[in-house]
Design a protein that fits this description.
The structure holds two protein chains of two kinds.
Chain A lengths: L1 H12 L1 H27 L8 H4 L9 H7 L4 H36 L5 H13 L4 H10 L10 H6 L5 H4 L2 H26 L2 H9 L4 H29 L3 H7 L7 H10 L3 H28 L22 H28 L14 H4 L18 H34 L4 H15 L2 H12 L13 H25 L3 H9 L4 H12 L1 H16 L16 H11 L2 H26 L11
Chain B lengths: L3 E9 L5 E10 L4 E5 L6 H9 L6 E6 L2 E5 L4 E2 L7 E4 L11 H11 L4 H14 L15 H13 L5 E5 L7 H18 L2 E6 L2 H7 L2 E6 L2 E6 L1 H6 L4 H6 L6 E9 L5 E5 L3 E6 L4 H9 L4 E6 L4 E4 L4 E10 L3 E8 L2 E8 L9 E6 L4 E5 L5 E9 L1
The chains are: A mainly alpha, B alpha+beta.
Chain lengths: 598, 379
């Protein structure tokens, strides 16, 4: 008995044990419980469904499942969106790999011109919010079919754009693919750059032709990077919401996320929860596949030999044309969208891009007291916008502090107890939010916190729920970097403090934190930037009282206030770019080097 | 088998530093030549230029009489056409191919017949003693096995010359010794020309038929190992070869009538008798006028004696069982000495020593060049 008590006392005398227990409890509540809650929600009657089901609110029903899978509607509700999601995601991967991988090859292996500038610009779309290219696409190619004035392209050339080009799978695949191409470039380019040049030189010496070397040596070597790109791009594009919302909706092209949004906002949330479950299951399957692939395929150590100066493939006569072409594509990905936002936020009447039709009203116009499209203060003078901006910053700040602090402490305690069951469980718990698609996660929190839960009051519509979900969702980002950095710090450094009798708080603040300064800062700043450009996580949780910039953009867009929407979008991009710049300057970390994914 | 000839080869990287500067080198057919020097001396660059992986900025390279590279004439034969094998420091085995595939890859490129490839793979695996691992992946092999696979892959197409870039530096000490013996044996059985890059002077000493010692891109001395050890042409060569390193004693010299030179060091005086036939020194000895010079004495020339000679204090004694390395202090000058056999000396005890042998070296202090070789007589 005494011995047991002694064990307990020893266990609790270690601060990291206490931290792990606290994390275990809170993450169980915030991550595991919601998973059960959403399953329950798929089996009960919700207020908006009372009349159509004819049962009391909260009572058990199989209505949602039958409707989703075994009714005339199941095709519209589940199968078509599922097919659309899979279809667009597969081709998005293809676009991202081909463009990103091709660019990586050109940059690392050929003598293409302007590499420095081009790589900087190529990363751009990945730093900007995911819908940037989609909005730009619509600015250029929207047509009269859906209503409203045609886009810049038609205005300039007079050529009418067919529907398939303007909306639906084609532009969704292209814009999402281009958004993730930089990610493919980063992963594949990293392998190509770090790949031991000796491997290729050994082949050269042994009489290998260029083609054979490419197919037998280079491609197999980058295969693991290609696989992990595919996994990440696929799951990101499965859970992407804004792009299909902007480009799919006009032609009623629904994917899982947009279908879920409309059902949860509509009269049958139960089906929405089923879609959320479906998405979680899909993403778990993808992750298991990932584990399986990583497990079986040896990821090749890419230790650089000393011959870093591998001879570049000479493009010869096609050098200039290729450089120009790549330059053009990169421009279209990075700068042209921004120009379109500027243009679109200036014009008075839609579809007329003449200079006489431009105004700064949407930026700095003064309202005469009304608050609609025709008479609304420019976004820089509009109190609503300023409140929203402030709310966005406040939310990002809250999420950053939450995720950053918890992530660092989690990293610390996980590493200190590495190998124990408790540490493993907590590590996996911190990673779960990463597996759950943003919108499904939001749906879970909506279902869980819309009513009183024990001592926790209903949180729907409050700032707290946004901060909470942001913190939990970005926790993997922060804890991953926390774990990685703590792994590199030997425990002796802290033990030297223990021997001298330095208390834990002081060890943390005077020893660990100063050493880990830069990772801690990036653990705070990466969630901040991600939060600033997050839409799908917040869109079903915000109410009119606590909008953030991204949902305001979404709101203006739904209303058809294109000029305001474009102006807000520029504002978001501006903030994100500035923040990313600050992060890079301060820590050397940046979004593109983060956990990936979003 | 070719003779490899480098004429005035210079390599300048874009940053401006010259990795190799005006190198003239002839590697005879069947030689085992080591390119030796501290890191950054241009030895690997030289090897890669021979292979064709790197392009010299200036100069010509010939294989026999065929020019494979000429900066002036714009000739650059690609690596695969030069018929050389290249062994990389980190082996550069393709991780996604089995041992068999790794070895067969080059043969397939040369459009060998399937059966011929198979028998060659079997043969070479037998020679390298890796036959039982042919279906494994490189990651499943130990360092030494990987090393042997790499050699097998390089030798399979019967290269005319085998170029090796520090092939043993990734192995542990014991394995390295085994592989040294194996390489020397391989050189004998294949009869191929070996060019070997290393920074380890004892490796170069033990393996090669000739050593090319380089420093910051410039060739210092090119000769058989024992000659390099015994007759270094300057202080760098003398210092680089040998472990423990050569003792350098600063002194001023005065020529004497009998052709000897009286040398005054801080704590002892000796007469240096130039060896007959040391042509390099002969002409200059007469010109030598009380100049400042450096006397180089190998540790094994410092012989502990019972009486006579110079007195020194033992400040360290490091016995290995086979020999004992001593550091002796004689009023300000510290000399290292080697005593052979199983002896140990008490620290701080006093001993007496003499200089033996004909390979004491006298260097010019300013140019660090060698004046002469000779023997020493204590005054």
């Amino acid at each position: 008995m005494n011995r047991k008590w002694n064990n307990v006392k020893t266990f609790l005398s270690k601060p990291y044990n206490i931290l792990l227990i606290l994390l275990l409890l809170s993450l169980t509540y915030l991550v595991v419980l919601p998973l059960f809650s959403i399953v329950k929600d798929a089996f009960v009657v919700h207020p908006s469904e009372k009349s159509r089901i004819g049962q009391a609110v909260g009572s058990f029903t199989l209505y949602h499942w039958i409707r989703a899978f075994f009714s005339n509607y199941s095709k519209i509700l589940i199968w078509t969106p599922l097919w659309h999601s899979l279809y667009t995601s597969v081709f998005t991967c293809l676009v991202a790999i081909l463009i990103g991988g091709g660019f990586a090859w050109l940059v690392t292996r050929t003598d293409m011109m302007w590499k420095g500038t081009l790589t900087k610009l190529f990363i751009f779309p990945y730093i900007m919010p995911s819908w940037t290219l989609a909005l730009a696409w619509r600015n250029f190619f929207k047509n009269a079919v859906v209503g409203g004035a045609p886009g810049i392209f038609t205005a300039l050339t007079g050529i009418a754009i067919p529907n398939w080009f303007a909306y639906g799978p084609f532009p969704i695949i292209l814009t999402t693919g281009l958004h993730y191409a930089p990610f493919a470039y980063i992963l594949i380019g990293g392998v190509l750059r770090n790949m031991d040049a000796n491997l290729e030189e050994a082949a050269i010496i042994l009489n290998t032709t260029k083609a054979r070397m490419f197919t037998r040596i280079t491609i197999p070597m980058v295969m693991p990077a290609v696989m992990s790109t595919i996994i990440l791009v696929f799951s990101s594009s499965m859970s992407s919401f804004a792009v299909p919302q902007f480009l799919g909706l006009p032609v009623r092209y629904y994917v899982l996320t947009t279908e879920m949004y409309s059902t949860i906002q509509g009269t049958n949330p139960g089906v929405g929860y089923i879609i959320a479950i479906l998405m979680i299951v899909l993403s778990i399957i993808i992750m298991l596949m990932n584990q399986y692939i990583i497990g079986t395929r040896k990821s090749y150590a890419t230790v650089t030999g000393k011959s870093a100066n591998i001879s570049l493939f000479r493009l010869g006569r096609i050098r200039t044309p290729i450089s120009l072409f790549v330059g053009l594509v990169v421009m279209c990905m990075s700068l042209v969208p921004l120009i379109s936002f500027v243009l679109q936020s200036l014009i008075l009447t839609d579809g007329n891009y003449h200079f006489s039709n431009m105004t700064l009203d949407f930026w700095i116009g003064i309202s005469k007291g009304g608050n609609d499209y025709q008479d609304k203060a420019g976004i820089l003078l509009n109190a609503d916008v300023w409140n929203t901006l402030f709310n966005s910053l406040k939310l990002s700040f809250a999420c950053a502090v939450g995720a950053g602090t918890v992530g660092f402490l989690a990293g610390y305690s996980i590493v200190r107890r590495r190998g124990s069951l408790l540490s493993r469980v907590v590590e996996n718990l911190t990673f779960i939010p990463y597996l759950i698609p943003s919108m499904a996660f939001a749906a879970i929190y909506l279902s869980m916190f819309s009513q009183q839960r024990g001592i926790i009051p209903p949180l729907y519509g409050t700032f707290t729920i946004l901060a909470l979900i942001g913190t939990v969702k970005y926790l993997p980002m922060a804890s991953r970097s926390g774990v990685n950095s703590m792994l590199q710090l030997s425990p002796e450094i802290e033990e030297a403090g223990i021997i001298l009798g330095v208390p834990w708080i002081k060890r943390m603040t005077r020893i660990i934190v100063p050493i880990e300064k830069s990772t801690i800062v990036s653990g705070y700043l990466l969630p901040f930037v991600s939060c600033m450009r997050e839409l799908s996580l917040f869109v079903i949780l915000v109410t009119a009282n606590n909008r953030v910039l991204t949902t305001l953009l979404f709101f203006y867009d739904e209303k058809g206030w294109a000029q305001y929407g474009n102006a807000i979008n520029l504002l978001i991009i501006f903030i994100v770019l500035v923040m990313n710049f600050v992060v890079e300057r301060l820590t050397g970390a940046s979004i593109e080097k983060g956990v990936g994914g979003k | 088998m070719p003779c490899i000839r480098l004429v005035n080869v210079t390599k300048q990287f874009s940053k401006g530093a010259r990795a190799v500067d005006g190198l003239n080198l002839t590697i005879e057919d069947g030689d085992f030549v080591s390119l030796l020097g501290p890191s950054g001396c241009g030895k690997t660059t030289t090897l890669r230029m021979i292979a064709g992986l790197e392009m010299p900025t200036e100069g010509d390279i010939y294989f026999d009489d065929k020019c494979v590279f000429s900066a002036e004439k714009g000739i650059n034969v690609s690596p695969d056409k030069r018929g050389v094998g290249f062994l990389f420091q980190n082996y550069a085995l393709w991780p996604h191919m089995t041992v068999r595939q790794n070895i067969a890859f080059g043969l397939e490129n040369m459009k060998w017949e399937k059966t011929k490839i198979e028998s060659r793979v079997r043969e070479i695996c037998g020679i390298m003693r890796i036959a039982e691992y042919v279906d494994r992946y490189p990651a499943e092999l130990s360092g030494g096995q990987q090393q042997r696979v790499a050699i097998a892959r390089t030798l399979a197409p019967n290269p005319r010359a085998l170029l090796m870039d520090e092939p043993l530096s990734n192995l542990d000490a014991k394995l390295r010794n085994d592989m040294r013996a194996e390489l020397k044996r391989l050189h004998m059985t294949t009869g191929a020309t070996f060019v070997y890059v290393t920074h380890d002077q004892s490796e170069a000493m033990t393996l090669s038929s000739k050593i090319c010692l380089m420093k910051t891109g410039v060739l210092q001395q090119y000769c058989p190992p024992l000659e390099l050890y015994g007759e270094p042409c300057n202080m760098f060569c003398a210092d680089f070869m040998g472990n423990p390193a050569m003792n350098f004693v600063e002194c001023t010299g005065t020529p004497q009538a009998d052709g000897g030179i009286e040398l005054k060091a801080a704590s002892f005086d000796v007469v240096f008798h130039p060896a007959e036939g040391d042509l390099k020194g002969a002409g200059r000895i007469t010109a030598f006028e009380g100049g400042r010079c450096v006397l180089g004495i190998r540790p094994e020339m410092v012989k502990i004696v019972d009486e006579g000679g110079i007195e020194g204090k033992v400040i360290s004694s490091l016995p290995t069982g086979m020999d004992t390395v001593l550091a002796l202090d004689t009023r300000g000058i510290t000399l290292s000495a080697v005593a052979f056999g199983r002896i140990d000396y008490t620290m701080d005890s006093m001993v007496r020593f003499q200089f033996e042998g004909d390979y004491a070296v006298l260097f010019d202090k300013d140019s660090t060049e060698r004046f002469a070789l000779g023997s020493l007589e204590i005054l």
